[in-house]
Amino acid sequence: MRSRKPFVIFWPQYFEVKRSRSDGRRIPKKFASEKVSLEDISKSAQNLGYNTQIERGYKYSRTWWDNAGRVLIDIKGKKKNRVMLEVAKEIRKIHTEG
Question: Looking at the predicted structure, is the pLDDT value of residue 3 above 80?
Answer without folding.
Answer: no
